[in-house]
Specification:
The chain is mainly alpha-helical. It has helices at about 20-50, 65-70, 75-90, 95-125, 130-150, 175-195, 205-220, 225-230, 240-260, 265-285, 290-295, 295-315, 325-330, 335-355; strands at about 160, 170. The protein has one domain (about 20-355). Helix content is about 65%, strand content about 0%. Strands 1-2 form a two-stranded antiparallel ribbon. Helix 7 runs antiparallel to helix 9 (about 240-260) and helix 7 (about 205-220) runs parallel beside helix 10.
Length: about 350
């Protein structure tokens, strides 16, 4: 919205700053951060009053959680989503289709997660919306996003899958790109959801991954950088940097209250929405495979659940002491803060490896 102040500019005054993505990204970051600090505690107080006993704790989970985390309110993802929405609408160009596509995915998954959290709190059990319905709704949202993206991209990119490390390596999937995009978006949403199991565990890796994709979106949205890096230029994706900056600002505002011991959980409202956002940005920027590297922690968490379930069904035995993987390390005696900080370090290392693929060709 503020971008349109450039119409008042003569090219050399203050209003000219609003032309620059970097300036508006900074504005989005601080707007979201201030939003989080302003509304965080009032939201937590409201959630406590409305939810009573807070988020139901899994009875089959680590024993320490039943005592330490009982009564903590959930749906804290509303704080992040509110910060992102206000900041993005204020600072991004509203004529950019990629911004609206990512917002659509983010808030659609946020609504799915909100319904799931609401049922868990209302019924005081950990079941919520059935997994089949969640997947069905998620794939429906992702299908719309995949088709939308193909329509926005240039013919030489639409329906193509780009491979990192290889110069000009592109695979034409045609309309099969839509189901591929669906898997990427839904997979990312659920992988982040699996990771959200300890105080502060999911939000920092999400911010690290989002920051990495903010850099990618900015670089591939400029012809000068894409020529230098020898990657595909995707017109308009630079504007997603503002969305990412808002996500990081909102995420930091939430982390202030989610740091151990957490005063609020983001719930599926936040984890599904943020994971869906990462998947949507990866699809928009043609860096779907790189998402598996940058978001490698989320992939590992999701795979630990899949492996555990499949192996148990086949043999009646478990590979991990408990899945997702972070609970396995809890069972091994690692402290919660120890797990969280080590997983943050791993996320940062994977992000740097993923960004390195931009230049290694």
């Amino acid at each position: 919205m503020l971008y349109y102040l450039t119409e008042l500019s003569d090219g050399g005054d203050f209003f000219n700053l609003f032309r620059y993505i970097t300036f508006r990204s900074g504005g989005a970051f601080f707007t979201a951060l201030i939003f989080g600090f302003m509304f965080g505690q009032p939201l937590i107080n409201l959630l406590r009053r409305k939810q009573g006993k807070g988020q139901p704790i899994r009875e089959d989970g680590p024993e320490s959680h039943i005592l330490a985390k009982a009564g903590t309110p959930t749906m804290g993802g509303v704080l992040i989503l509110g910060a992102i929405l206000v900041s993005t609408l204020l600072w991004a160009r509203l004529d950019n289709g990629y911004v609206w596509m990512v917002l659509f995915v983010t808030y659609s998954f946020g609504l799915i997660g909100f319904a799931d959290d609401y049922l868990k709190v209302a019924k005081q059990n950990s079941k919520g919306v059935s997994g089949k319905i969640r997947l069905l709704l998620g794939f429906g949202v992702a299908a719309v996003a995949g088709i939308w993206t193909m329509q926005m991209q240039a013919p030489e990119l639409s329906g193509y899958l780009a491979f990192p490390l290889f110069k000009d390596a592109m695979l034409n999937l045609g309309y099969l790109y839509v189901p591929f995009a669906m898997i990427v978006i839904v997979g990312a949403a659920n992988a982040v959801n699996f990771t959200d199991g300890l105080d502060g565990l999911a939000i920092m890796p999400v911010m690290i991954a989002a920051g990495s994709f903010g850099i990618i979106a900015y670089l591939i949205g400029r012809t000068d950088f894409t020529e230098y890096l020898e990657v595909s230029y995707v017109a308009g994706t630079g504007e997603l940097t503002i969305f990412v900056a808002a996500l990081i600002g909102g995420g930091l505002g939430f982390l202030w209250y989610n740091a151990p011991p957490a005063a609020v959980f983001m719930g599926d409202t936040g984890s599904l929405a943020l994971g869906g956002a990462l998947g949507a940005i990866a699809v928009a920027t043609k860096h779907e495979i790189v998402l598996a590297i940058i978001g490698g922690l989320f992939v590992a968490e999701a795979m630990s659940v899949i492996i555990q379930v499949l192996y148990y069904k086949k043999t009646g035995k478990r590979v991990f002491l408990m899945a997702p993987m972070h609970h396995h390390f809890e069972k091994r005696g690692w402290g919660e803060s120890q797990i969280v900080i080590r997983f943050w370090i791993i996320s940062l290392i994977l992000a740097l490896i993923g960004l390195a693929t931009l230049k290694i060709r």
